[in-house]
Amino acid sequence: MNRVKHKYSRIINRQLDEQEFWPSFTDLLTTILLVVLLLLMAVLATEQVKAEKREQELAEKEMKIQDQEELISLLTGVRQDIIEDLILEFENEALGIDVDKETGAIKFRNDLLFATASDEIRGPFKQELRNFIPEYFSIVYGKYGDHIADIVVEGHTDDVGSFMYNLELSQKRAFSVVRYILSDEFGDFPYKEVVRDNITANGRSESQLKFFESGEVDRDNSRRVEFHFRLKNYSDWNEIATTTK
């Protein structure tokens, strides 16, 4: 009798254990699934944030490219407008100058600008400068002053003599031109104070020689003085937007 009771007792206890086990297993499985679901939701949320960030970065890059394209277009237009105005003003003048149609550089082509091997400006060149300077700066600063960074006067020599000798000579000649323009002897002209703050003199020696079609050095045209304008290098679109208002 005791054996029978013991047998049934074990069966009942086993059933009770099994009944307790399955609910616990179900709860565990539910918890695991919930954790997995939460992890998936977290991953999806993270990926969505990354995707939105990439879209924002892409939009910012596209906007920056668009701004740069507009800036380039504007500056190209400004440069071309200046060049066209300079050509219109000086191409028919008997000043002995050429206007570069690509850069707007003004080249004085008279071979008698200076005394031989000297930085002393000859009288005819002084007169050319007195006729040229007021008109030039009235165009450059009068119409486009907001876009002009500086004015560079360049001296150039031919290939006779050493490079260093020609470098010194070309530098002195460029400096002589600037000194004369800003001197009391030259007199007043529009935007002279602005020019004083923004003009520089550079000597280029024989680094930019002129050549005949035959390939030989054109020494007459290599000896020259050039005026260059340089546009501002805008690093911020807001800066140029403010300038053009």
The CATH class is identified as: Alpha Beta
| Strand percent estimate | 5-15%
The CATH superfamily label reads OmpA-like domain
* Tertiary shape: elongated
CATH topology: 60s Ribosomal Protein L30, Chain: A
Structural class: alpha+beta
How many strands, what sense, and barrel or not for the largest sheet? 5 strands, mixed
Distance between the termini: 110 Å
Order of strands, main sheet, comes to 1-2-5-3-4
Number of domains: 1
Strand elements, count: 5
Rg, alpha carbons: 40 Å
Summary?
With 245 residues, the protein is of the alpha+beta class. Helices cover 60% and strands 11% of the residues.
Describe this structure in words.
By secondary structure, the protein is of the alpha+beta class. It has a single domain, classed as 60s Ribosomal Protein L30, Chain: A. It is built from six helices and five strands. It has helices at 2-90, 123-144, 163-181, 192-198, 219-222, 237-243; strands at residues 97-99, 106-108, 148-156, 199-203, 224-231. The chain has a five-stranded mixed beta sheet. Strand 1 (97-99) and strand 2 (106-108) form a beta hairpin. The termini are far apart. The relative contact order is 0.11.
Which helices and strands appear, and what pairs or packs with what?
Layout: H1 2-90, E1 97-99, E2 106-108, H2 123-144, E3 148-156, H3 163-181, H4 192-198, E4 199-203, H5 219-222, E5 224-231, H6 237-243
Helix pairs in contact: 1-2
Record keyword descriptors for this entry.
60% helix, five-stranded mixed sheet, elongated, 11% strand, 245 residues, 60s Ribosomal Protein L30, Chain: A, alpha+beta
